[in-house]
Design brief:
Layout: H1 2-34, H2 38-56, H3 62-95, H4 101-121, H5 133-163
Helix pairs in contact: 1-3, 2-3, 3-4, 3-5, 4-5
């Protein structure tokens, strides 16, 4: 009996450690991508947008390429912070248990918003980059979607466990 208890404790510690380490790696990726030079960042996006526009339109105009580039950038903000929200919510659900998970989810929201705001805020100090509140909103909505997805999956899992 005691052996099983320690095994569960070790398993939980390993899961918590792995979750926190994966969150740290993810946050490093977000910071790295956010603080790229403005010319490099827009150059990569414009190349990808030109290739996509060539496949969508027969003879794409510069306006169409810019629109595709904008869609890529917005999608990248939403997708990156969706993953951040998902991972922070997962980490908080692993660390906190029972009714304290509500506090963990609230803390996940705070972490996502602070990361969304401050990655944009500090961009203004990077050459060729600037602060945009619309990007903060996109980051925040992506993070919220990730958190909501994790919470819904948690409750669906609980429901399926009770039904089986």
């Amino acid at each position: 009996m005691i052996k099983g208890k320690y095994a569960k404790l070790w398993l939980k510690l390993i899961v918590v450690f792995a979750s926190i380490m994966s969150l740290a790696v993810l946050l490093c990726v977000v910071v790295f991508v956010s603080f790229q030079n403005g010319t490099e960042s827009s150059g990569v996006t414009m190349k990808a947008a030109a290739r996509i526009a060539e496949n969508v339109f027969e003879d794409p105009t510069q306006e169409q390429i810019r629109t595709v580039s904008l869609m890529i950038r917005y999608g990248a903000h939403l997708a990156m912070f969706f993953v951040v929200g998902l991972v922070t919510a997962f980490v908080s659900m692993v660390i906190f248990s029972h009714y304290f998970r509500i506090i963990g989810i609230a803390l996940s929201g705070v972490v996502c918003y602070m990361l969304a705001y401050y990655t944009e805020y500090f961009k203004q100090f990077v050459e060729g980059r600037h602060f945009q509140m619309s990007d903060v909103s996109l980051n925040w909505y992506g993070g919220l979607a990730g958190i909501l997805c994790m919470v819904v999956s948690y409750f669906l899992n609980r429901l399926l466990v009770k039904l089986s």
